[in-house]
Amino acid sequence: MPFLDPFQSAIRSFKSLLKQQGSVSVEARSKITLPESFAPHNIGIRGVWIPSTDCKVLTSKQRIADAMDFLADTGFNTVFPVVWNRGFTAYPSQIMREQFGIEIDSRYQGRDPLAELIVEAYRVGLKVIPWFEYGFVSSYNLNGGHLLAKKPEWAARDCSGNLLKKNNFEWLNSLDAEVQDFLLGLMLEVANNYPVNGVQGDDRIGLPVEGGYDEKTVKRYREDCGREPPSQCRERHWLHWRANIITEFVARLHRELKAINPDLLLSMSPSPYEWGLVEYLQDSQAWVDKKLVDLLHPQFYRRDFNGYKQLVDRLIGEQLSSEQLRCVSPGILLSNRGSNYSVNPELLLQVIAYNRSRGIQGEVLFFYEGLRDNGNALAEVLKNGPYAR
User: Fold this and answer.
1) What's the count of helices (H) and strands (E) in the chain, helices before strands?
2) What is the model's pLDDT at position 337?
3) What is residue 144's three-state secondary structure?
4) Taking the C-alpha atoms of 343, 283, 211 and 201 in order, what is their torsion angle to the nearest 10 degrees?
5) What is the C-alpha to C-alpha distance for residues 254 and 235, in angstroms, rounded to an integer?
6) Rounded Cα gap, residues 172 and 102, in angstroms
7) Could you give the CA distance from residue 124 to residue 119 in angstroms, rounded to a whole number?
8) Contacts of 12 (CB under 8 A, 6+ apart)
């Protein structure tokens, strides 16, 4: 594939480094020159998320290699492998080692799944954008987990002073500068040390609207605004003040990512606007207006065509210009193991066809295992349909 030619020397040196030391050198990344447009021949992004929950891809080199072969054969061009969830990384992290004494998720001890995946993805012509799934979440039903056990001052608080918990996720205080520095450091660590195409923030780049009542944030609001935060967490001024702090974080992330390499892409996958703003302080409209993101994958996880169509129509009719729409590749739900949901092939083809009819050239599918269900049924539908070469 011609658009991968600039990667070849980097990949060769990268493989050599893996054999020698099992880690990645900055030198490998610095040899890469990314193509001018992200997707060749205006195909658009054909992406898929690869999680570590309900998915075994990252558990061995062989499974990684098999998955990359499968995705390339199906017609995908981009993978979003998880590198941050449950308070652990899927790569050896100096930051995690220094701050928490845990270099990598124990499931991957002695390995570097991210490095292994990059080699195999580039071998078959796939681009790689590591996915920081947990964002500012500390744990799931673990009372903050090991992150807050070590740094309780990082906890987000609700108006009663309790640890902020929503939908069973416990949150770090994303409005705190020290917490922001920590997550920013992880994302830039990957961008600096691995030959990736960018980094991705999930719908947990934000904060539940019920948060922001910790002492530091209350003091900051009082100093900025001359009054106490209202007890009504959705009061307009209070909501937008906090959302602006999240937007400032996204701006800083974008700025510092481009300082490493202007061709590195900042990908974000927020909840649909405006729900994401009023529930999680994600002002994705401002992110696009201010040109803080290169790729936007709003999670349009609807289980019927009309629901999906309404989100697309609102995005195009009320939110983004035709120029801004070029950065959008919506997230489409293939499977939810918790509810035993699987999209039927007809609906998947219908929503992709509607994307194209409205000028949306790509999408990102959640998640990999949904493609393998029922004898690879959805993968075959894509391979012989919209993703046919």
Assistant:
1) 14, 16
2) 85
3) coil
4) 60
5) 29
6) 18
7) 9
8) none
Give 83-112 as a DSSP string.
Answer: -EETTEESS--HHHHHHHS--S-GGGTT--
Rounded CA-CA distance 383/44 in Å is 15
- Are 346 and 313 in contact by the 8 Å Cβ rule? The answer is no
pLDDT in tens, 210-253: 999 999 999 999 999 999 999 999 999 999 999 999 999 999 99
Q: What is the DSSP string of 58-86?
A: GG-HHHHHHHHHHHHHHT--EEEEB-EET
pLDDT of residue 240: 98
Topology annotation, domain 41-383: TIM Barrel (3.20.20)
Contacts of 177 (CB under 8 A, 6+ apart): none
| Residue 332 bridge partners (DSSP) | 365
Low-confidence spans in the chain with pLDDT less than 70: 1-42
Neighbours of 248 (CB within 10 A): 13
* Whether the Cβ atoms of residue 280 and residue 271 lie closer than 8 Å to each other: yes
78 and 127 in contact (C-beta within 8 Å)? Answer: yes
Tokens representing 248?
């400032």
Domain regions of the chain by residue span:
41-383
- pTM here is 0.91
**8 A C-beta contact, residue 91 and residue 151:** no
Spatial separation of the C-alpha atoms in residues 241 and 281, rounded to whole Å: 9
Take residue 373 and report the two structure tokens written for it. 């269900």
229 contacts 221 by C-beta, under 8 angstroms = yes
